[in-house]
Amino acid sequence: MKLLPRLFALFAMVLAAASPAAAEDITLKAADGTALHAEYNKVNGEGAVVLVHMLGRGAKDWRFVADKLNASGLSTIAVDLRKHGANLPQDSGRPELSPQDFAGMKQDVQAAVAHLKAKGFTDIQIVGASIGANLALQVAAEDESVTSVVLLSPGLDYKGVTSEDALAKYGERPLLVVVSKDDRYSAKSGLVLDSQAKGVHSLVIYDAAGHGTKILNKEPQAEPMLLSWLLGTYTLTDGDGGASRAAGLQTGDTKEIETTGKKLGEE
Fold first, then answer.
1. pLDDT, tens only, 75-103
2. Cα-only R_g, the chain
3. What's this model's pTM, rounded to 2 decimal places?
4. Which of 76, 126, 185, 263 would disulfide-bridge 50, Cβ 3.0–4.6 Å?
């Protein structure tokens, strides 16, 4: 009978080893002095990923993805952009955001990257959704320590945060763009960005997966594809560049995508 408690203890140890530890709540400081909440999880591994949320959302949107990345050996940091998430008092409502706020959000992402650098990470990737995608590309364009970027529903211009200029500076580093045809503005923007990408890049187009991080919930293949890209196991089907897509994905006919819909600057 004494063996049973030992088996339970051993089983608990195995579960603990297999499950990633809870994220650590930390405070970052942007270059302009703005204090920012972030969820940081360091695991054994050389790589790390910065996760940037959509407008009006927060770092907690990434918890499920972060857990899977942590279990796969990638550390993560999900930052609450200024006037978002845990940076706001509870029940404070959605604040008004000024052009200065949107311009300052790039510093918020830079603060997350700086935190990873201070922890010794040299292989840093950034994943952003919607305006977070544009911010991710802008930060990566100015920081060569960022080795790869994933854009979920990017736009050519969200609230003055643009992407084409940043892509030109980003150079030949890897780029994954994920959009959905029912989100017409992002679909159009994704096609433009993919056509201008210089290095290894892939454009994945879904039919009806929605916008930003919603794609990861609506499209069953999206999350495994994202993890594959970040882990370096993603397979390009059309060579190193062009409108490449992961094997087996239903990308649809890009010629049917309409170029009208959401106006520039709208979320």
1. 999 998 988 666 667 666 677 777 888 88
2. 19
3. 0.81
4. 126
